[in-house]
Amino acid sequence: MRCDWCSGNELYMKYHDEEWGKPVYDDEILFEFLVLESMQAGLSWLTILKKRENFRQAFDNFDVQKVSKYDENKILTLLNNPGIIRNRRKIEAAINNAQCFIKIQNEFGSFANFQWGFVNHKQIINHYDNIKAVPATSPLSDKFAKELKKRGFKFLGSTIIYAHLQAVGVINDHIDSCEFKEESYYGNGTNLPKTV
User: Fold this and answer.
1) From the CB of residue 161, how many other CB atoms can be counted at a distance below 10 Å?
2) What is the per-residue pLDDT across 125-164, written as a single tens digit (0 to 9) for each?
3) Catalytic residue list
4) Where are the beta strands (DSSP E) in the chain?
5) I need a surface site. Which of 80, 122, 123, 157 has the fewest CB within 10 A?
6) pLDDT, tens digit, for every residue of 67-105?
7) What are the domain boundaries of the chain?
8) Which ranges constitute the DSSP H helices of 41-87?
């Protein structure tokens, strides 16, 4: 028994079973999700998942230091890469966001510490009977998106941020009948995010 949004597609089911809703404390993975979520704007998440490996190759495995230094030549290379989303504004946002991400790392020790601090380092576990009841935004995603915007991030509004928080396990939105819900629990909140 799974959340019904992933049924019928093996790639979706694998993502749901192995990643979605499980807490992430690794900054490299958090940066990957921020880039992928911003690339998704206006598209389906399945479209992004199908291109995920291409993105990893094109963006140096989401090495935030490398992405932060991409120049116009690299942007042109990315715009000519048919395996990714070729949108100049989104690519430029990824570079900009990498630079903002590093500033947060320097200030908080890691991006994970910064992000998990919004929930006191404890996963929010919601209880819904069906996926239609799950919201697209929340006061938390509003607050986090607003803070990111204040810090210079682009292409990361509240809806995208809510999806990001679900993906990296800050929010557990597996429906109550999903057999993977308990596997995604953050536990008692004693495990703190990794620092860099």
Assistant:
1) 27
2) 999 999 899 999 999 999 999 999 999 999 999 999 999 9
3) 15, 37, 45
4) 124-125, 171-172
5) 80
6) 999 999 999 999 999 999 999 999 999 999 999 999 999
7) 4-45+100-184
8) 45-50, 52-58, 64-67, 72-79
Q: What are φ and ψ of residue 179, in 5° steps?
A: -70, -10
Return d(Cα 192, Cα 108) in angstroms, integer: 13
The mean pLDDT value for 39-62 works out to: 95
Angle of helix 27-40 relative to helix 158-167, nearest 10 degrees, comes to 140
Average pLDDT, the chain: 92
pLDDT band at 190 (very low <50, low <70, confident <90, very high): very low
d(CA 77, CA 58): 9
Q: How many CB atoms are located within 10 Å of the residue 187 CB?
A: 9
Strand stretches in 14-173, DSSP E: 124-125, 171-172
The number of CA neighbours under 13 Å toward the Cβ of 188 is 1
| Dihedral sign computed on CA atoms, order 130, 131, 137, 140 | positive
CATH superfamily of the domain spanning 4-45+100-184? Hypothetical protein; domain 2 (1.10.340.30)
If one counts every other C-beta atom within 10 angstroms of the C-beta of residue 195, the result is 13
pTM of the model: 0.91
